[in-house]
Amino acid sequence: MHTRCRTPERRRRPDRPAACAMLLALFASSAAFADDAAMSAADRHRPSDPPGQHGLIVIAHRGASGYRPEHTLEAYRLAIRQGADFIEPDLVATKDGVLVARHENEISGTTDVASHPEFASRRTTKTIDGVAMTGWFTEDFTLAELKTLRAKERIPAIRPDNTRFDGMYSVPTLVEVIELAKRESRNGRRIGIYPETKHPTYFAREGRRIDGKPIGVSLGAKLVETLVQQRFTDPRRVYIQSFEFENLVELKKKLMPAAGIDLPLVQLYDDFQGATPYDITYNLAHGADLSAVYGGLVQQAGGIDAATRYGAFTSEPVLAWMKANYASGVGPWKGNLLPRQTLQAPVDANGDGKAELAGQGTGLVHPMLAWALKAGLQVHPYTLRAEEVYLAQTPGGVPQSVVAEAVQLYGLGVQGFFIDQPDQGVLAREVFLEINRQRER
């Protein structure tokens, strides 16, 4: 379909007709913008303090991970230049207790560690949150050793263009990520960070290094310590997130008060029906007093046992209790928030000869969204991605771009989302705000 609307990278004025906005929402390509276009998007980004526009934020999922290997300084830098408000470092610990940005503490999929013969003997098998993994683990490397490795694309079959950057970037520390956010905050614009503590129960209580010694690192305590040391404690510029419950409660009740700070906490949700928060699994197995650990959450959820799944924490009473006691927001998986069904046969929606679009929206919205908003919680779903394999059709059978998906989420009331292509999220916000402006005229 052809339209006379200017494409985003060529547009000179911030406003556009509503018809163009709607067309962009429905038909914007899910392909990535070129690097030059991404840079021009940064030039257009309007300053804001705190991050976001009109209460709406764009969160760069592991940086601009659709364009660069994830969790690298270059991925974060590009995300900022594309207009992201927050950059997201997933945090794990090194042998010497330094927080670094990796999606997992097992690093064979995201670094070139396998090509380093000096580290061959550190390949081992560990059980992380009940799942056996074989590879190399950050807790078995000092920071100096980890810095000799180079990042690589985690999903090369889906993002082959990113492989040209393999071997170019090191593993960043949390301090380096904060320093980048500080440097890039200028001309009235303030960049925030959105760190996630990865496997906090494992690092603090269950995990062992390759020599058999307990790791014994509190990711929450290290995070608070680093933020304070770096003087990066503005609650408008930091969200802390976790899939576990106990470490967020500990942050709220103990760690942050002891440090004299108060930052917004976001409770992440894995699959509502298929997953149990690992801290609950661990505490049940070790006979912990759940009421002492979780307080009134146990009662609000109707009790907690081995059969408890994330879905037990999506009810209106639970969400209200979370808001009153520790959480400022929730981060559900978009597939739970907006359920999809599988198509009988995949569709080639982008015409590249590969039928990769395999889902269709049902038109349903999980009631958790309305209950969370009613409780005053921020709602930041994850993860939006532009590649066809991650997209779906509308209930009416129209292929939906990632821009249209993001506009839909904004329209449902979410205040932000995690996205691998931040420029697409920024465009979606512009489209959504323009549609609203046109409606108000």
UniProtKB/TrEMBL annotation:
Signal peptide limits: 1-34
InterPro entries: GP_PDE_dom, PLC-like_Pdiesterase_TIM-brl
Reaction equation(s) it catalyzes: a sn-glycero-3-phosphodiester + H2O = an alcohol + sn-glycerol 3-phosphate + H(+)
Pfam families named in the record: GDPD
Keywords of this entry: Glycerol metabolism, Hydrolase, Signal
EC number: 3.1.4.46
Family affiliation: Belongs to the glycerophosphoryl diester phosphodiesterase family.
Name this polypeptide is given: glycerophosphodiester phosphodiesterase
Lineage: Bacteria, Pseudomonadati, Pseudomonadota, Gammaproteobacteria, Lysobacterales
